[in-house]
Write a structure and sequence with these properties.
By secondary structure, this protein is an alpha/beta fold. Helices cover 45% and strands 18% of the residues. The chain is built from 17 helices and 15 strands. The radius of gyration is 22 Å and the shape is globular. It starts with a strand and ends with a helix. Bound molecules: GDP-alpha-D-glucose. GDP-alpha-D-glucose binds next to α1, α12 and α13. The site of GDP-alpha-D-glucose has 27 residues, from α1, α12 and α13.
């Protein structure tokens, strides 16, 4: 059987103690654990010199192969083109785009460096599975090096509409690079349609009914593979947390009040500031909720070097301080804002302890926290998910979740009120609808379907 070679910008070698935050790490570790193979990518280290050696660590059935990034590349490729151009573009935040040609050149340079470092490790029948927007150009660089293997690509974040994509100065070249893959996977049908439109209008290439496009004699198939979670592992971890001291401390501190929870990387796409404002609106519209609930927001910092992220932390500190200043009593603070990361076991315990999971991104490829919240619940007395229509997860969970538009503060406040008062029968009914879908589309199904489709494209 072919080996799986996973390539992503950043790789995360599990230390046994902590899994790093970030949806991609969680998903890829689960896939490799089952399948075995190589995970190749950036080590997370920044060094002075370009073209560093590859460091290899073997653990179980997986080989982790890492390269360092030169300081200039880290700045221009990672902070620059990836996170100051592609990330805001794909999350519909053009005001944060800072484009320049040197950074676009760095993007191509690092994709080329990845291809050259990966080349000696490849065997002829390896299936190569590339992840995310950092590596749109990797297949093209590998093809230049005469790699004939099947190469698939999965985009974890949204693919933007044509009207936005065309605002990228290098949109045509980047799009033609993407077309060098054999298979490209998206989180939702919206992303797939957006991609087809970009290829149609940007490159004048049409697709057939099965989503196949032929460009310069090369066939590319595009499909939807909604990413899932390991439902059993989340539910077991959450259940086991019952006995943990942390969970007991948390429950004790609530003094029988209901808990609303949010867990997100500190990122403007996650809609944290509007979420805080919506929570404030809850008390304006429904003063009966004063002293009855506590909102716990966990928000580990990310991308501290990128300008657009500088203000978020301060804005959230101000907003949470304002809400507590306005409504708190000597024995109750309405909001607890934790600007740090936690071990996964603790997080799953927090999710289980919460009567409401509040997930309100302004755009999100999928949002795994929404799925983890559902899987972490007690089936006999589950909490309610309040979910943004703009998260990819809304495509699967809209029947069971309370759906809201995160920009409509009143609607989010109403959603919270509904969730906080929902009778147990309805909660159980909604939870069953959601967990059924999560079990069908779990992390294993995602991996199997992608790898099988990649194999088929080889045939
Ligand atoms: C990208 C896309 C897509 C969070 N804080 C901690 C921690 N986490 C874990 C969560 C969850 C993961 O990180 C976050 O996943 P998301 O899906 O919510 O978000 P992104 O990082 O933006 O991921 C996203 C995903 O890729 C997968 O395709 O869903 O749309 O943007 O698993 O539980 N984990 C630990 N400590 C924390 O403090 N250990």
């Amino acid at each position: 059987m072919s080996r799986l070679v996973v390539v992503s910008n950043r790789i995360a070698v599990p230390t046994g103690r902590r899994t790093p935050p970030g949806g991609l790490a969680v998903a890829v570790l689960a896939a490799l654990k089952e399948y075995g193979g190589i995970w190749f990518g950036w080590s997370g280290e920044v060094k002075g010199q370009p073209d560093a050696d590859v460091e290899i660590i073997s653990k179980g059935n997986t080989t982790y192969a890492m390269v360092d990034l030169a300081a200039q590349d880290h700045n221009d490729y990672y902070n620059g083109f990836c996170n100051s151009v592609l990330w805001p573009l794909c999350h519909y935040r053009p005001q944060y785009i800072e484009y320049n040609r040197a950074e676009w050149a760095a993007y191509k340079r690092v994709n080329d460096m990845f291809a050259r470092k990966l080349l000696p490790m490849l065997q002829p029948d390896d299936l190569i599975w590339v992840h995310d927007y950092h590596l749109f150009a990797l297949a093209q660089q590998l093809r230049k090096l005469k790699v004939r293997n099947r190469i698939g690509f999965f985009l974890h974040i949204p693919f933007p509409a044509w009207g936005l994509w065309r605002s990228l100065p290098c949109y045509k070249e980047l799009l033609s690079f993407i077309c060098e893959y054999d298979l490209i996977g998206f989180q939702t049908n919206d992303d797939l349609i957006a991609f087809h439109n970009c290829v149609k209008f940007g490159l004048e290439v049409d697709s057939d009914e099965e989503g196949t496009m032929v460009k310069d004699g090369h066939r590319l198939r595009a499909k939807v593979f909604p990413i899932g979670i390991d439902v059993k592992s989340v539910s077991t971890t959450a259940r086991q947390s019952r006995r943990s001291a942390t969970r007991k401390r948390l429950i004790g501190s609530l003094q029988r009040r209901k808990l609303i929870v949010g867990i997100d990387r500190l990122d403007y796409s996650k809609g944290l500031l509007t979420r805080f404002h919506a929570y404030e609106r809850l008390f304006e519209l429904y003063p009966n909720q004063l002293r009855k609930c506590v909102f716990l927001q966990v928000a580990p910092e990310s991308r501290k070097d990128v300008e657009a992220y500088h203000d978020i932390r301060r804005e959230l500190e101000e907003a949470s301080g304002h809400i507590n200043g306005r409504f708190a009593d000597f024995d109750w603070a309405p909001i607890r804002y934790l600007n740090r990361s936690f071990a996964r076991g603790i997080l799953m315990g927090i999710l289980r302890a919460a009567q409401v999971g509040l997930v309100t991104p302004l755009r999100d490829g999928m949002n795994l926290v929404a799925k983890e919240y559902v899987a972490a619940q007690n089936p006999r007395n589950p909490g309610v998910l309040v979910l943004s229509r703009l998260a990819g997860a809304s495509r699967e969970l809209s029947e069971g979740a309370v759906m809201v538009n995160p920009l409509d503060l009143d609607e989010v406040a109403e959603g919270l009120e509904t969730a906080l008062n929902m009778p147990r029968d309805e909660r159980v009914h909604r939870w069953r609808l959601m967990i059924k879908i999560l079990r069908q589309n779990d992390i294993r199904a995602w991996r199997v379907q992608f790898v099988n489709s990649l194999r088929e494209s080889a045939a």
